[in-house]
Amino acid sequence: MMRVVCMVALLLLGSTESAASDTTWKSKRGLFVVTYASDLDPLEINKLHGWTLQLASKDGEAVTAAVISVDGGMPKHDHGLATQPRVTQELGDGAYRLDGLRFHMRGDWEVTLTIEANGVTDAVTIKLIL
Amino acid sequence: MKRVIVIIGAAALLYLAWYHWPASPRAWTDADREILQSLSIKSLPPLPPDPSNTVADDPRAAKFGHALFFDTRLSLNGAISCATCHQPERQFTDGLPKGQAIGTSKRNTPTIAGTAYSPWLYWDGRRDSQWSQALSPLEDENEHGTDRAQVVDVISNDPVYAASYQDLFGDLPDAADRASVNTAFANIGKVFAAYERLLLPAPAPFDEYVAAVVAGDEQRQAELFSNDEVAGLQLFMDKAQCLQCHNGPLFTNNEFHNTGVIAAAGELPDKGRVVGAREVVNNEFNCRSEHAGDNANCAELEFMRTGPELIGAFRTPTLRNVAQTAPYMHKGQLPDLAATLQHYNEAPDAMIGHNEAKPLRLGRGELHQLEAFLFTLSSPLAIDDDWLRAPLPQ
Questions:
Q1: Rounded mean pLDDT of A69-89?
Q2: Using CA atoms, how far apart are residues B90 and B111, in angstroms rounded to an integer?
Q3: CA–CA distances in Å: residue B11 to residues A92, B7, B27, B303
Q4: What is the rounded CA–CA span in Å between residue B212 and residue B209?
Q5: Dihedral in degrees, nearest 10, Cα atoms B379, B384, B389, B393
Q6: Per DSSP, what are the bridge partners of residue A83?
Q7: In Å, how far are B205, B218, B220 from B211, measured between CA atoms?
Q8: Which range has the worst mean pLDDT, A17-26, B236-245, B298-307?
Q9: 3-class DSSP string for B133-168
Q10: Which pLDDT tens digit goes with each residue over A50-76?
């Protein structure tokens, strides 16, 4: 019985976004892989800062000319981000500049990037603990 | 029958014991110590530069701003100064639900101490710098009730002020030229800000306690904090969730939250940040205005958020010296700390928007402990007393 529960749990996990590492995340449908590097490392609360995003296809190829929108918040607290961050620049070779992030509380955060590129749309939710 | 009465009596006693029983302090962990240090005034970074204000850190401007802060000539009736509502002896507040000047202000008078660290000013963040904030009360009909032409006139016709102005900014403004008056008005705001930047809290008993915890000095901890104060601090960090918004060395994240505070008696609910966000974007003295100069960093305005979540949301106030700044909330709706803690304990539904806070279900003993802890955040301001009273005439 326990084995079945574990298998179902693994299947459920596999169907949503997942993290290959703390900073690399796969999108929900598995179309993109995003790696972020924060200007603040480690992340801190209450500081306006930016990230560099590296966007790749599931095959590992750099994805250029993507349109990326940003949302997020603290699901447990039922509120969004303190700011309205956005991608301010495409840096080339699949790299993008994301500016205007600020986390104003300790706890579990999510940053969701909705990515449109190569005629498809997928979203990746990056989970953070501050 | 007798047995039923005994059982009901015992249950009632147990409930009363739970309700009134205070929490017992637990041992501090490494994670706690990290959080405690983040709250210590020692973690306050150096004053953030204000590139939109070229005289922000000029001692001549601070001295000039100090004089202006107490000058009642900058008002309609010659009787109101900034210090009328922002009273130094009350931590730059006034002890009233709403400020009383020419008329009654729309909101509660917040402290000025530490506002140099906030990207947003006012309860609704409708200004984005200390200097642009300082200009608004001068022209508010309920506050100073004057206007920029009269303010500039006072500066130009007072020999000491005129000399101070010229020393900092060059020529006196041309009263007949609207643009020149606007520039001078902005400059006067920057002079106020140079003074206000100096108003910062000194270390409080809490900060000494944190130092003792970090040093592992249990004897010193016991000298500084009672068991109730320790338990109150732990409730603040954990069960009461105060730390969520009241974080960092000034005990504020300077962000906007709807916490379900009821409207002031006889008033419609205040929309708060959702209106303030609209106003700051259009303010003629905001970071993007010509008055902010070419070096202004407007990232806060550029990435500012708005939307329905900010309906009825207000800026988190600092808790440094909170025991000295009653009444509380944006309209002074709650008369004392006990009423404020009870509000958070109940977390009622918001009248407009959505209350982010959830009921805490703390007992009375725990609320008393939280209140005891808040008193440990009291301290003088970290500035010589001469700056806290009107300067002597020169």
A1: 94
A2: 9
A3: 70, 6, 31, 55
A4: 5
A5: 180
A6: B304
A7: 10, 11, 9
A8: A17-26
A9: HHHHHHHCCCCCCCCHHHHHHHHHHCHHHHHHHHHH
A10: 999 999 999 999 999 999 999 999 998
Residue B58 main-chain phi, psi, to 5 deg: -90, 120
Nearest CA in chain A to B277: A83
Other C-beta atoms lying within 10 Å of the C-beta of residue A61: 11
Res B20 pLDDT > 80: no
Q: Which of B241, B256, B303 has the highest number of chain A CBs within 10 A, making it the mutation to test binding with A?
A: B303
Between chains, do A46 and B303 touch, taking CB under 8 Å as contact? no
CA dihedral A38, A43, A49, A52 (to 10 degrees): 10
The residue whose two tokens read 């300077």 is B254
User: Are the CB atoms for B105 and B142 separated by under 8 Å?
Assistant: yes
Output the pTM of the full model. Answer: 0.92
Q: How many helices (H) and strands (E) does chain B have?
A: 15, 2
Q: Which residue of B has its CA nearest to A87?
A: B303
**Contact predicate B394/B256, CB 8 Å:** no
> Which tokens sit at B281?
């974007």
| Disruptive mutation site among A51, A79, A97, A130 for chain B (greatest number of B CBs within 10 Å) | A79
Angle in degrees, CA B249, B255, B258, rounded to 5? 125
The mean of the pLDDT values for chain B is 96
CA-to-CA separations, B49 to A77, A121, B10, B263, B371, in angstroms, rounded: 33, 42, 62, 37, 35
B323-333 residue pLDDT tens: 999 999 999 99
- Written as six digits, the tokens of A10 are 């693994």
* Dmax (CA) of chain A: 51
DSSP string, B41-55: GGGPPSPPP-TT-TT
Count of H-run helices and E-run strands, chain A:
1, 10
